[in-house]
Amino acid sequence: MNRRVVVTGVGLLCGCGIGTEEVWKNLLAGESGIGPITLFDTTGHDARIAGEVRGFDPLNWVEKKEIKKMGRFIQFAMAGADFAMKMSGLQVAPEISEQVGVYIASGIGGFDVIEREHTKLMQGGPGKISPFFIPATIVNLAAGHVSIRYGARGPNSATATACSASAHAIGDAFRIIQRGDADAMICGGAEAAITPLSVGGFASARALSTRNEEPTRASRPFDAQRDGFVIGEGAGILILEELEFARRRGAPILAEIVGYGMTGDAYHITQPAEGGDGAYRVMKRTIADAGVSTDVVGYVNAHGTSTPIGDAIETCAMKRLFGDRAKSVPVSSTKSMTGHLLGGAGGLEAGISILALRDQILPPTINLENPDPQCDLDYVPLHSRKVSVSYALSNSFGFGGTNASLLFKRWEA
User: Fold this and answer.
1) Does residue 413 surpass a pLDDT of 80?
2) Active-site residue 118, yes or no?
3) pLDDT tens-digit map of 237-259
4) C-alpha to C-alpha distances, 109 to 40, 106, 139, 204, 288, nearest whole angstrom
5) Among 14, 16, 145, 303, which one carries the catalytic annotation?
6) What is the rounded end-to-end Cα distance, in angstroms, of the chain?
7) Residue 303 known to be catalytic
8) Of the residues 163, 187, 316, 375, which is catalytic?
9) Element (DSSP H or E) covering residue 313
10) Catalytic hit among 16, 145, 316, 340
11) Which pTM does this prediction carry?
């Protein structure tokens, strides 16, 4: 029999704030974290807005001499892990260190470092490249640095499955604890891809919103006037623990993770499968994994990126999944406020889903002013909503047709 796994800590930072409760408060207030890009000169760029983590000082989490060894995404992971660990109260003593693991994802990794060091190469030759270039850049170094910080000597890994990456990391960490390979996992994802090459590349693919004059209104999932996603950055880190391990130390249990699914579209490199087939199957698998029916799901934190095709197809998948009750299941896209954290999105949104269960209140989909006729579900428009919900589903879908869903259950001691 699989072991039960609970969530004891959530660490969030994004354009809506630095710190879990600050982010949560701003989301419930419907405050957008999107504004003009300040991290680089956007002259000549079609898209000039993003969900930046403003006022972030890595020195609050990282020693000065260590900062040059870390891309910005790693710094975000360190901050997110700190918030989550403090909330959980988990102390990795030597006697349990081999039973505590780390699994932190990123879709892109240190794009900022790659661009900076490439400029040095072009201007000054290979002798100018930093000796820390590689470890500051590669995806698994977020997990590496977090494990070193806390002395976590258990399973250590990272996923790089595009925008599903941190949902996969949480799901895989869940499985690791279920089968007994660890008793606790620090897991989730981080991303810091607001760079000239990244923003320019997504814009060239016509994936980004160009509503530059109205940044707070640019990300508008399910709205008829949506014109693409807004890139965001930050981290979402969870502490997962085996139930009895958490109980023995008197941990604050926020929710239980009960289901995880993953599927592939096998259809197209960037577009979702017609009719939302992959999205439908991953949600169905996740609910089946929990051993419950679709009838118990009371909230969906949608992938909902604000792209014309993606939002309509996810809506189609949810209609297929929920059938007659589809229009009575509240769904929201918090990307309307945070922007799209790419590989960090699943971790951020899993944390948000857990807080929704904890406080019994749903964050809104802001900017939903002119609903798309193809998107006709209950998207919790404009304002947060008090509810009574037992199960929350969190969706993440990525380029290459990779899909992940997580199902969380409200904790009642």
Assistant:
1) no
2) no
3) 999 999 999 999 999 999 999 99
4) 18, 5, 5, 20, 33
5) 303
6) 21
7) yes
8) 163
9) helix 308-322
10) 340
11) 0.98
